[in-house]
Structures are given as C-alpha cells and as structure tokens.
Amino acid sequence: MEKYKVGVIGGTGMVGQRFVTLMENHPWFELKVIAASPRSAGKTYEEAVGGRWAMDTPIPEQAKNLVVMNAEADVAAIAAQVDFVFSAVDMKKEEIKALEEQYAQQECPVVSNNSAHRWTPDVPMVIPELNPEHIKVVEAQRKRLGMRRGFIAVKSNCSIQSYVPALHPLRGFGLEKILVCTYQAISGAGKTFQTWPEMVDNLIPYIGGEEEKSEQEPMKVWGHVENGVIVNAEKPAITAQCLRVPVSNGHTAAVFVDFAKKPPMDEMKAIWAEFKGRPQELQLPMAPKQFLHYFEEPDRPQSRLDRDLERGMAVSIGRLRPDTQYDYKFVCLSHNTLRGAAGGAVELAELLCAEGYITRR
C-alpha cells in the first residue's frame, strides 16, 4: 500500500510530539513534514525539541533529522509536499482558524486537535466511534470555501472522550440529565511534573473554559446533519465540574445519569461490552478491537493498566451502581493524549482516508 504523506503543524508541543510518535511505523501514514513557530524553523526536529521532549519513548529516527518548517510562512510549500496535515498549533483562536483555512485553501485537508473550528457549523467534530456520519458536511464546507480536496475536520475536547463514549451506546434509553466531574491529568495542559513541579501533591479545582466545553461539545457530537451543517442536539442537560489532578496522563470522569427509561445494570454492561463503531467495522489501524471495557472490582485503582487499554485508545468503565438522586453513577477513564487528543485525530484521519475524503495528491 502506498502511504499517505503527512505533515504535523505545531510538531514541537506535547500533542505535536505525540503525533510524531504515532507516525512511526504507521501502516498507512508516512511523516514527511514537521512545522512549528519561527523560533524552531530551520532547526532539525531533534534540535528544536531539545530538552522539551515529553514522550515516554525516544524521538523517532525518521523525525530526528527533518528540518522544521515555518508553520505560518511556509503554508504553500508544506501543502505541496503532503496529502494532509495534523494541526496542533499553540496560537490565539482566531489565528488558528485563519491558519487552518489557509492550509485547506491550498487544497490540503486539515485534521485538527485545536478547538478553534469546533463550533464552525460545517466543520465536522468527530469521535469516529460515535458520529462518523458527520464527515459528510465536508462537501458543504468545500463548496462554501471554494475548495476541491481541502477541508478542515476536528476532534473534540479530550475531557469528553472518557464519559461521552460511555454514554453514547445508552442513548436508546433516553439520556435526560447528566452530572459529570472530570479529574484531568497535567498533560492535558501540555505539562509534565518537570515543567510544572508545583502540581506535585496538589489539585486545582478549576480549568478555564473546560466546563463549558464539557457541557456543550457533546451536543454537537450528538447532533445531526441538516442542509450542510451540524444541528446540535437539545438533550441531555449536562452540568460539569473540571479539576486538574497530579496525574501524568489519563482523564477520569465521575458520571451521574438519569434516563427516560431506566435500563437494567446487566443490560448496560452488555451494551458496553458489545458496542462497536465504524472504525471497528473498517478495522482501522488505531481502532481498539474492544472500545469500551467494564471492570467489576469496586475498588479497582484507575491505573496505568486501565489508561493504556488497547494502546491507550479504549475507555475503561467501572463502579456502576444506583444513585439516590440519579438513576446510576459510574466512573470512566481514557488516555487524554492518545484517545482524547493525537490518537483520536489519527483515527479520524484513518476514517477520512477509508471513506475517500482524504486522497493522495
């Protein structure tokens, strides 16, 4: 199979680094370009990341000697070398929107980890197992922007990719009301304990903007396509509280849920065990064979074992029990830089390739 040529825009940050590691030995994708800010441009990737490499594995050999390009100044040159790009740039929101549109207008598809375009009505925000049908709005987006093969697709916020996948297969029972408390790792802020030592033995009960994303983004994921745009769902009502906790990787969520028709607990567990989405049907390289894993042990630690299930791409669920104010409560965990960020975007790119939206130049 001829591989797709890939660029990573914003390749020196934590999510960009994760994209670079995921391209190593990927069966479909080959890393051709890394781009970043002007201060990194012109250096080899190894020089540019220097002592800031935050991954558990070494810098991939194929990336070390790539000369970093200027993500803003070299748009046309980058687009000409690749079939599509991943975007993980660290800029102001309006600047990100403009930059991603520049790449798309160069007929270069953009698969973005950034939040800038999540609320653009004809930009699909896709968790591949949950709402793959949303990618069809790409055609309306192309028409609006006058493009032939370029477009922008985004992944959702990492905080919702633990509890929304767990709730999604249960929608047939009528999700009415949800309370969620998220306990989010420091890598979600692009940090390690070396760069953020004050988080050791600490907890921050507020993450700016995160609660709004956690309450609103599921409404787009659970929406429907109508007249070339995504119309948000009206239910369920979600309220969220988001905390930063002293954990390297992995976002945990405590979920309280009310249903229109309360399901039996055994049926919920069976639905989780049997759930499959479009990525599993297509056997995409990043897709976990079993997407949702339920563990019975009530005191099971939310450990690295849970976080790294299926190469970090699965969701771990446990402690399902009745609640006095809601029908049920449970906890769930996902790997935030894999399932929630770069890995989810890679799986989205695989889906876009498999469905013919990304093609080779």
Give the CA-based shape.
Answer: globular
User: Main sheet: which strands, in order across?
Assistant: 3-2-1-4-5-6
Radius of gyration: 20 Å
Tell me roughly what share of residues is in helical segments. Answer: 25-40%
Whole-number average pLDDT?
96
Low-confidence stretches: none
Class derived from helix and strand content: alpha/beta
Number of beta-strand segments: 14
> What is the tally of helical segments?
13
Report the biggest beta sheet as strand number plus sense, adding barrel if it closes: 6 strands, parallel
Proportion of strand residues: 15-25%
Q: Output the helix-strand order.
A: EHEHHEHEHEHEHEHEEEEHHEHHEEH
- Give the CA-CA distance, first to last residue: 15 Å
Family: Belongs to the aspartate-semialdehyde dehydrogenase family.
GO biological process, one term: methionine biosynthetic process
EC number: 1.2.1.11
Keywords: NADP, Oxidoreductase
Describe what you observe in this structure.
The protein is an alpha/beta fold and 361 residues long. 29% of the residues lie in helices and 22% in strands. It contains 13 helices and 14 strands. It has helices at 14-23, 45-49, 61-64, 75-81, 93-105, 138-145, 160-167, 210-221, 265-274, 278-282, 304-307, 309-312, 342-354; strands spanning 4-9, 29-36, 69-70, 84-87, 110-112, 152-154, 175-184, 224-226, 229-231, 237-244, 251-259, 292-295, 315-322, 328-334. The strands form three sheets. Strands 3-2-1-4-5-6 form a six-stranded parallel β-sheet, sandwiched between helices. A hairpin with a 2-residue loop joins strand 8 and strand 9 (229-231). GO terms for molecular function: aspartate-semialdehyde dehydrogenase activity; NAD binding; NADP binding; protein dimerization activity. It holds the Pfam family Semialdhyde_dhC. This is Aspartate-semialdehyde dehydrogenase.
